[in-house]
Amino acid sequence: MDNSDAQSILDSSGMLPSYQDATTRPDWLEIVAPYIPIRQYASLCLVSKRFFHHFAPRLWNDPMAVLCLLHSDYMGVVAPQRFLGFMDHAARIPETSSLPSFARSFDTRRLFGDTSYFIPATLGTKPLSTLLSDIACRLPRLRCIFLDGYPSLEPEPLMNRPSPPARLSSAEPPLILSIARCEVELPPLYFTASYLRNLVYLDVSYMPGSLKTYLAFKKFGPTNLPSLRILKAQGREMDNGTARLLFTAFRDQLWSVDLSRNRLTDYFVDNLPGFAFSSESPRLRSSEIEGTLQNEIAETDSFGRFCFVLDSEFSASFSHPDRHFLEPPEYEVDPEDQESTSHSGRLDGRKKIYPDSPDALKTMFSGKVGFPSPPLDPVLGSPTFRAHQGITHLHLNGNMLSASALAKMIRKSKGQLQHLDCDSMRFNLPSGAVLSWLDKVNNLSGTLGWAHVFRPLFSANLQVLRIHHSLVTQLLSLEATGLSRLANLWLAETKVLPRAELAYPEAFVPDMNPRLQSLTLTRIPRYSTGPLIRKLINFLKLAAMQERAIQGAKVRAGRRHRPVTLLGLRHICLEFEPDPRERSEVGLDFDAAAIMDDSSQSFSFFESGWSSSSSTTQPSATQPSSTDPSTTQTSSLSTVSTPIHPPPVSESRDTTSQSARPDLPPAPRRRPAPSHFQSHSWDYDRTRYTRKIWIGPDPWIDPDPGEDPLHHAPAAREYTPAAREYMRLLRAHARQLQTNPSPATPCHVAAGVPKDEYVFSAAWEAILHPCRCGPSSLTGTIEPRPGGFLVSNRPSPTLDDLKGMKNVVDALKAYRAWTRRAYAEACERAREAGEQVELGEPHFHYTGRLQVVTVGGGEMDGFGSSRGS
């Protein structure tokens, strides 16, 4: 049975039917009911008792959703009079009627989506507890209650609430309660009500008050909420201490926590209790495939417990032939255990993880709109309710965490995380030494040098990741005072990116973790001078190459008894920031439409497949040939000609191509040069550590003024430019930068640091500063400062620089249309030959789901694609 067959027998909740349901011959009404319009259900209920039995549960399963489908008055919003009319109708239904018992979901999110359309006085004011009691009394079998943003609520009394009505005591406790954005502060005893005792999902986001009050009074924890597994507490001004109280109260009971838009800092990771994650690390595969970890008895505040990544030739380049095969699980040996699971803690790489979104859980617990609800016993027996061993789904968007703290938390999680959501993080530069204008920017965010923590060595169970785009592009987000948004983009890409590629050459590629199935890159700029476009297209090509490798692995395994392969990266979402040229900005006094590339106007967001109306146009004489392997994509992406081959993977200044191409020979290794070490001691947790830190070649010879400081060090010439820059910085700023030691990561090794050595992280991070002493300065102008240091002034783009920036989305549209046409031609040739079409090269069309969305603008029409589109 393949995936499509298995999916066809799932019920509306996404769970397999019971044995009795699977072996019982279905009634023909159950077969035809999904094809009948919902507006006809009320009339069909009057035909007979048999029809009432089939259609009444479908009509009343989610009454608010049905109300929105039948009576949408304005932009899909239901008028308050209709909502109040339904509530009055439900109150007048006799207690002997079975209609209210069919209701499983009460969802007002679409009703109150546009609060400006409602008149608060129409609904009347009442406390939230009173509203909840009214709903429960009228619909006593609800499993899901969504009251997000419900208007006109009175403040709750600080005293105990009155005893619930008699009908409420017999009501079935709900499993989901979402009261996000309700402008009312709840008293500490609110969650002690017995009616809320069975909650599995609770959303209290963006409400006034702090959860610290509930936690301090010990009224918010396992005692009153023993079944709670999923908690969303966005925008509650939660600090590190409150977060620790939360995890201490629930220990390992919660498996999904959303703490986005709070005030968490790096100390949150330091104070995160160990029992928030499992104490057992997932089993790792062969060291030839994934590498191994070597733990050290030393640690620091910024890095945590030291560890080295020991790579083989295959694991370092992610090129082992068996990397895409699914390894067999290891089971408990107890034959009496009917739920034997792998004791290694490693999940099946093909099975989708359990969702924690409200819509998915609502479907699981109450079924879809127009379908009957699933039986309660299978719902309560689903894995969502079972005991867990700590956090597997973690959402940390919009906090003040740094990139190094996020990497530290991933290492601390021991591979348990399955879904990680962190759309932005601070990138901290070393303090104590002013090295360039980069020290004075308002905000620098992104991640560099930590791509290896998303490998199976640290993230064996990770399947869904949402993170800043710099993980793939190496491009940080920069905000400098006095510059427009477009100028900030230019500054980050032209001045900071070259230094980032120098110091942190390793970016994330799909084969770093073939178990990852969904990747969302956030905060992508809309305009680029070229490198960003090249890196995004290169990543899409690598995803297509992964598809080809998985396809080839299946062919090599043969038809009989072939092992199962991993799915690989099947979903890529690119989240773009708003278009800065659509806003009035300082320094942009030109017509944005006039400077756009002419060829980009031939693509429409609303044309099917984003195909060009002039696709037969021949390339101009000045355009480079599309078949030339040395041609870069920047100049040819916006053309509308039909190429023979898609743009080649750039190997010029693209630091990910070497490690991502298993078909290319490994880069030649430099002859090891003599190294010099410095003994360094530090204190952590009342323990003294001493290590020899690698600082480069020996001996040091003072250069002449204006000459490269490493000119007279023959051994230094054996090192990479990044290593030489590290040595120069240590010499120039010894007191400020000879701090914060850490083990050399795979990114350090790729940049030129010897394996299994320690480096001063502060000095290595300082390489990012776009400034060099002497005539070899890369960017900016040099001026002397007190103390003898040379500091560069911040460069600013000219009007021509800004006009030359290209629209990234238009370039991706052109590339996507290009590969789609080449893939369609390959499919046609394979069909004529009676063969299976090969994925990957030469068309490089990624057949997974590709989404392009803008913040506040939704998904761009035509870019979301499925296989073959």
UniProtKB/TrEMBL annotation:
Residues 607-643 have a biased composition (Low complexity). Residues 325-353, 607-680 are annotated as: Disordered. It comes from the Eukaryota. InterPro entries: LRR_dom_sf. Residues 329-339 have a biased composition (Acidic residues). This is Uncharacterized protein. It comes from Parathielavia hyrcaniae. The lineage of its organism: Eukaryota, Fungi, Dikarya, Ascomycota, Pezizomycotina.
